[in-house]
Amino acid sequence: MDTIDEKSQSGMSRRDVLRILGGVAAANGLGAAMWGALELMVPAATAETWHKSVCRYCGTGCGVLIGMRDGRVTDIRGDELAHNKGVICIKGSMLRELPYVKGRLTQPKIRRDGRLVEATWDEAMALVAQKFKEAIAASGPDAVAFYGSGQLFSEESYTANKLFKAGIRTNNVDANARLCMASAAGGYTQVYGKDEPPGSYEDIDYADCFFLIGANPFECHPPLFERVQQRRRTSRVVP
Fold this sequence. Notes:
This protein is α+β, with helices and mostly antiparallel strands. It has helices at about 15-40, 90-95, 120-140, 155-170, 175-190, 215-220, 220-235, and strands at about 50-55, 65-70, 70-80, 110, 115-120, 145-150, 175.
């Protein structure tokens, strides 16, 4: 009787196949164990009321629902009526921990005798107003400036602009959005004739091809990446 050659036509032996299958099984087991550990870390939902909000971790701006009980945040879940359709990433799911991080500032601090000490909001705002007053008196309105954020609410941005431009009378108003979007706005203007992306998240649900360059949505915008993956799963689109 002819002996069976352990090497397959592909050059792999039965031992190689068994080793690969064992590795796959071990990886699946480890993944299941880690998922179980994460589930154990997440406390059971004990919310009495739910409030709409927005996750501020990244530019996706996922809608979230904040579960409250006795004045404390107890749970976070994705808002199914928002553009993320209820999907949030691991960072968003851990938002409930932020208010209770050890060492988190809960009140203002001002410098006294070379040391930062806790102060009331009235004390802190009075100090800021006094420093602004001194700078303006010494060097005029353009001695002060406001540097905001692209994540300010419209009402906050409006109030700051009103204060500095109409109140203090200075045009020294800027935001980090100008720096982080300067190159992007230039590219948009040259390609599309507009300084903003001419589309919406809903376009993903109808796209047949996704071309990503200079971006890593899997790491940086997980809910958006999941929406792309969902489109790929339900349609024949180019990877």
